Amino acid sequence: LYLEYPKRAVGHIVHTEKGILAVEKNKVLIPPLWNKTFCWGFDDFTCCFGNYGSEKNLTTFECMADWGKCLCAVCPSATTIITSGTSSVVCVWELSLVKDKVKRLSLRQALYGHSQAVTCLAASVTYSIIVSGSDDRTCIIWDLNHLTYITQLPAHGASLSSVGDIASCAGSYLHLWTVNGQPLVSINTTCSPKSCIACCCFAEVMDWDTRSIVITGSTDGVVRVATKSPFSTGHFLNIYFLNQTTGNKCGKHLVLFRELNPSLALTGKPSKNSPAVTALAVSRYGSVLCIVAYAWQRAARQPLS
């Protein structure tokens, strides 16, 4: 696997037919061509658009400055960008492109619901939802089409660090929910009190397979793979531990069945000071599941796979 290695911690990874694309934190790639980036986190609270592989910002907008410091953003489509941060308001922006050039970024809707800074966002076009997580330990589901409130998940045990559709991560705990916000199952991914989940993503092994595979990357530098299945634990190898949430009417289990240590893969030796895994992406080739995880490493400037 080869790509132009980012100079800072990786924030977003996309797997395309041409290869793997990765950008630094405070940047996201814009679908469906993935050749443009949206970036934020500047001291003047502006946001910028640029071309992938170039550090030059082509277009700058000041419209986000009214909403405080931006901490997170997602881009579910070529015309929609969702941002949030210290203002606690989730902002949905409409992006106007003319002949592949960014012409306008206008606020479509402001979504109010959190009481503290929003630290993570996820959006699913398939399910038409936005998921936002906050320092106030709440996670809210919004309707992506109508831009309205759907439901709020029960309070988590720590500030939200990552959300997916629909998985939420707080501290070292991974929680799975239905699209309606009903709890399915949760698991403590590590026994170390110093390790927290920094990112997560979903994958399916086969189109006909009903199991959900959830991959997490943590601050201890370890990638962990878990699966939700109605079957017993005897169907899995390399099981580390099992935590079945009480009151789960479906009777399903969440099993952490593999830990992947990038430092061990690179050097052949486990490291006590592995850099945090900051972004994840999954690509499926037939029955082979390829997991790509990137962390910021000064010593080994090469992708982790």
From TrEMBL:
Species annotation: Pavo cristatus
Gene3D superfamilies in the record: YVTN repeat-like/Quinoprotein amine dehydrogenase
Highest taxon of source: Eukaryota
Example of a GO biological process term: antigen processing and presentation
Protein name: WDFY family member 4
WD repeat spans: 111-152
One Pfam assignment: WD40
Keywords: Repeat, WD repeat
Keyword Repeat belongs to the record: yes
